[in-house]
Amino acid sequence: MMPALAMLVTTQLVHLSPVDFVIIAFYFALVLAIGFYLRGRANTGEDFFMAGREMTAWVAGLSFLSANLGALELMGWAGSAYQYGILATHWYWIGAIPAMLFLALVMMPFYYISKTHSVPGYLKLRFGEPSRALSAISFAFMTVLMSGVNMFAMAKVMQIVLGWDINFSIWVSSLTVAIYVTLGGLRSAIFNEVLQFFLIWAGALLIPILGLYEAGGWGNLKVQIAQRASEQYVHLWSGLGSFTSNPMGIHWTGIVFGLGSVISMGYWTTDFLVVQRILAAKDIRSAEIAPIIGAGFKMLVPIIVILPGLLGLAVLPVKLVPESVAAVTGGHSYNDVLPLMLARYCGPGLLGLGITALIAGFMSGMAGNVSAFTTVWTYDIYRPLINSQGTDHHYVNMGRWTTVIGVLISVGTAYLVMQFASIMDYVQALFSFFIAPLFGTVLLGMLWKRATGPAGFWGLLCGTLSSIGMWTWVKLDPTALRYVALSPHAKALAQDMYQALWSFVVCVVVTVAVSMVTEPVPDGQLRGLVYGQTDIPSVGDVPLYQKPLFWAGVVVVVFFILNIIFW
Amino acid sequence: MISIWFFIGISLAVNGALITAAGIYQVVNPPADPGVVLFNLHANVWWGAVLLVIGLIYCVKFAPRRHA
Questions:
Q1: Nearest by Cα to A201 from B57, B12, B10
Q2: What CATH code would you report for A3-419+543-565?
Q3: Whether pLDDT at A82 is above 80
Q4: pLDDT tens per residue across span A270-283
Q5: How do residues A36-68 score in pLDDT, each as one tens digit?
Q6: Would you call B3 an interface residue with chain A, using a CB distance cutoff of 8 Å?
Q7: CB-CB: which of B1, B18, B41 is closest to A19?
Q8: What is the mean pLDDT of chain A?
Q9: Calpha distance A418→A414 (Å, rounded)
Q10: Between B11, B21, B26, which is nearest A30 by CB?
Q11: DSSP structure class, residue A385
């Protein structure tokens, strides 16, 4: 092992060979090379913040998916699959596919026609400055904090898995991200997200292939899981008839109405981190088809995330335990299942590729956070509230500086979390407060022309406050779970589902009520923003197989078939 | 402008070549303790080769001169 790297290593879950280090070093060299290559192509605001709006459907679609395919998601959901079984797949299928198709076919035309730079920018056009300010400030604040939390969590993972020093992981990754996003803007972030997508598949697909070979195929795997855990671990829907008949303690109403109808809709259609990738598409057809491409690949992601977790249940010789127990006993936690499976099958080279995939997932997730933060700060906070007279060049410079400052705030947050671990839980909870009500506001804004400016603002505010109120109520009095999540047996994930559902309902009710007592917006001001007042442009005279609706239909059919197969 | 797919090709090809080379080295010099399950399948040889081939196809198809 190289002496400089040996100094960084203390204790570790896996041991890297020299060729693994070469693969990791090559990844860092490549992303920096991409950043330097793209620096000359980020001179205008459209280039830096919107990647020139020239991305093809494939690039935008894979980037859209990759923004949500971070290392922590991969490891966390593999751990959830070990803990809850195949139920975790709901977060990839019903918890994503309908929302992605809804974004493609219903919402994207409005985002695209309005030529907005961001989701808060759409709120400004539809509801006015107060709604934009509320949404932009909360998004910018939470995005940069989340980036820091993720940075610390990933550095911790690198310490546990590879024995790397936390400071080394934080500074090397954040400086690399700062350099390539500052140089190339959103285009650089998107290029690296697409690269990450390929690295993740190249690095992780071997685990289910070799795992199924070792387990003796899917049929034998199900038998082994039934023996070591429960038969319910391999059923998606059949155990959701009651709160107590499945490992997650959730009812099908929570999955369908909380996850499928509110949380996923909120995340995939209004979280600017992912929507920004689609806004960079080169034309309306690309913008509509990109989320459909993302949905197609999203349905496949359980192969490299959920299946390794299920295989871990069957083939790992050790029993994994919750994080809190592992901390006391020194054992392995659920979240270690993916690195453990990686170490089980992957020798020199393959291990380096797997670790590179995790690092790439983390860094591109951070780049996504920072590029979204930069755009919202510059266009939705700095320009309207601080300096509206700047030139395009001035705002690009502001974007570059904001990138550096955003990374530094993230690093500061990471160190804050290192000192006060409980902050992590609060920040993650805070982020979820805004998603569901924001979906309610944007949805009504796009589909109901009677919704007024004040109604948009008050609906968003009341929905967010109700979410915070429910979370605080359960925190202070855990027995309140029986009211918020409809069952005292509900687990944390189930609470999230119902909390989102109720805050969405509050947002919609308040928006409708306030709209009815305020002056309607004149139709002329709603053109290009609201259904019924907008001429949706055609995707052009193209063959059937190039139409977004055709591919959305294909995805829907596959979606239903998969859910029936694993019922 | 160099296509993103060319960068993808470079990444897959270089990683594939390194992984295949590491796998072949282990075939020629089998370690006393392989440290992995199913070592006999020599996954790094064939998986690395798959990545190398896909990477080379991308490199050739999206080479900068062909897209200039």
A1: B12
A2: 1.20.1730.10
A3: yes
A4: 888 888 889 889 88
A5: 999 888 888 888 988 888 899 999 999 999 888
A6: no
A7: B18
A8: 87
A9: 6
A10: B11
A11: I
